[in-house]
Amino acid sequence: MPTVSAAPRRSETHLELHLRPSLFIPELRTRKKSSVLEEMVAHLAEHRIARQAQAVLEVLRQREALGSTGLGKGIAVPHARSTMVTERAVLLARSTKGVEFDSIDGNPVHLCFLIVAPPVDRDPIYLQMLAEIVKAVRLAPVRKKILEAADFASIRSLIGAQLA
Amino acid sequence: MNTKLQALVALQDLDLMIREAKDPEQATREEELGFPLSGVDKLERTRDRLAKQIDEQLLQRYERMSRRFTRVVVPVEGRVCLGCFMGLPTATRRNIDPGTVEHCENCGRILYRL
């Protein structure tokens, strides 16, 4: 009897492992950078990832002062490490109307990936996830599909396919 | 968390960000990915302003310890310092005064309670 060899299963990337349905805001309520960061940090605090929302918000604002994390093409990846973060996490938020984010190209942001992490000595995964996000959303059709996806599972699959 | 600790936490987070932005390897990687890091001077000015708000003795202790440890302000979980992972004496836990800043007797790090 011939044996059927199963295709080797791809191991998931750090980004995929960190994407969680509970850390997804399908549609942001606010449209300004400052209030969007507040909205996202409040979500992290609800899920006990931010111990003190104000401290985490402040460090994200300082990170934006260092240089805008609005990458252009409707994407922003605000990221920072804070003493008041309990674990490394990625929060994905969408905005159909768009958010004013001081992006490099001046265009509004529709997909916002917020990365937070505690301040451990060396954390290569943190930087790897930044790179994975940039890679996952580099194509316009993918960005459009993520923005229009009906549920979080579809978004996760789309991102996974880009990183495969 | 008392205001002294809040200021120290903010200072520690800012110091880490400045350190990483000045780290050639990390900065290059971030810039390659499309994240400009042009505001280091601005962060350093914010850092100076924040440091002036912190009690001088406490700030000196923080500065001295930050030469040894990446994280000087660390949480206590149960009765364990999460900087050195050593247990704290029971008395330390009993004598918590909300207005004071506690230190780990083993490593000297500044502690905050979860």
UniProtKB/TrEMBL annotation, chain A:
Residues 17-162 form the PTS EIIA type-2 domain. One of its GO terms (molecular function) is protein kinase activator activity. SUPFAM superfamilies: Phoshotransferase/anion transport protein (SSF55804). This is PTS sugar transporter subunit IIA. Pfam families: PTS_EIIA_2. The lineage of its organism: Bacteria, Candidatus Eiseniibacteriota. Signal peptide: none annotated. It comes from the Bacteria. CDD domains: PTS_IIA_fru. InterPro entries: PTrfase/Anion_transptr, PTS_EIIA_type-2_dom, PTS_SugarTrans_NitroReg. The keyword Manganese does not apply. It comes from Eiseniibacteriota bacterium. Keywords: Sugar transport, Transport.
UniProtKB/TrEMBL annotation, chain B:
It comes from the Bacteria. This is C4-type zinc ribbon domain-containing protein. InterPro entries: Zf-RING_7 (IPR003743). Residues 80-111 form the C4-type zinc ribbon domain. It comes from Eiseniibacteriota bacterium. Pfam families: Zn_ribbon_9 (PF02591).
